[in-house]
Amino acid sequence: MKKSTCLVYIILTMVTISTVITLNPAQADEFPMTLTVNPTSGQTPLTVTFSLNLGSTTSKNVEWSFGDGSTHDTGNKLTTTHIYQKSGNFTGTVSVIASNQQSQFKTFYVNVGVAPTTAPTTINNQTNAHQILENSQSGTALGVTLPMTVLTDQKLYNQGDTVIIKGTIRDIQNQTAIAVIVRDSLKNIVSIGQPPLSSTGTFTVTLKANGPLWKQAGNYTVIAQYGKYQNATTTFQYSGGNGQIIANTPVISDTFQINSGGQTYSVPYIIKGGTVKSMDVYADKLMLEITIAATSDGSLTVDLPRTLMDAKIQANLTADEKMTGVQINPNTQTDDKFIVMISGAPVQFTETKDSATRDLIIPFHATDTKIDIIGTQIVPEFGTIAALVLAIAVISIIAVSAKTGLRFMPKY
Fold it and tell me: What is the pLDDT of residues 365-387, one digit of tens each?
């Protein structure tokens, strides 16, 4: 009698375990969820109220990330407020785990600050495209002024996709390593590593959403930890997997050499879902044009050296200063936003930056072929040496003509 009771108990236990294992985690977005953001734009300091409506669903955990590098608001708040203390275009997220373990994830955008009031400038009688488009959507720029940042190249991944994580450290400490941890929606660790830190404080992690740890669907959290007290987080959505290892979008990591202004610039890039065919500088348009051959929807991560091109808020010079030829050192100007256009339309992108580079992460579709990045300054078509040679040649001609009486224009 005892043996049969034990046997029944074991069978019931096995059935229970089997039921838990075979639950389909992809059924994670079934409960209703409405997000209200008020206001979505304004001048700094901007107080924004966020409200969630889950219908009849009871929440177990709510996590707010406001996109400006501030501490996440965790707990179970369906309504919260946040004060944006600096200007910029911020991309935030809110993730909810319901009492029945289902999860939801939403993204919101807040624009803080006012557009520059300077009139569009002209270059070779052409209007500066950057200033025409600066009121359009551009992207979220993180780094330089923030102690620490981290972000991913996409907000949604499927099994087999490559996850690219980039970040910055403002104040580098000798012999201090950085740890990057990825946790799934149940807070289990699915990846952990210590990427190398560049001399300017940037780091990159590339990992595959594959294997037995990448099964759970839902909201995943990336935690970058530096030293005892500094950390930054970001989140992304994962559609779930079966534990197998598969290969999805191909990834290429390489460096493109750009010859401009008599110099060669190395531009590292990572492209998912295609190849980079060319990179061309158009100084008259303050633009870098990247030609790609896309095989699927994907993303391009490109590390732009500031010595090649940059985007800075233009100084307002008085009429007298312009007349006297006052020059402003662009390195002392505040960073402005780049404009990224595909097929003639501005697109969303994200960015990390340090004192030497600005790293743009740009999504594209399978039908896209050209990506245009527009800034406010770019290397001239003639380099320093070429310009110097030209100047010496002109001065020499003038000197020779003055001594010999040689005329280059007909005398009337």
Answer: 889 999 999 998 898 744 444 44
